[in-house]
Amino acid sequence: xxxxxxxxxLEARYGNLLPVLVKAIQKQQKFIEAMxxxxxxxxxxxxxxxxxxxxxxxxxxKLKKLVAASGESAKK
Length: 76
Hints:
The structure is a single chain. This protein has one domain. Helices cover 82% and strands 5% of the residues. It has one helix spanning 14-75, and strands spanning 2-3, 11-12. The protein has a two-stranded antiparallel ribbon. Strand 1 and strand 2 form a beta hairpin.
């Protein structure tokens, strides 16, 4: 990729560099696509966990009301 014909002057052969760059870009694109897929999967997992958390919070609120109501009726 670098011509050493003249030790006083280094020259780059860009034509030889093109296939290397293309291959590197292709590899990078595959990595980006894999990361995007992984990110989408994680987002779905996160959404499911948030929904589950909301349901559990609602259940806790209901249980607190039941406990409070049973405590009031026990006092009577």
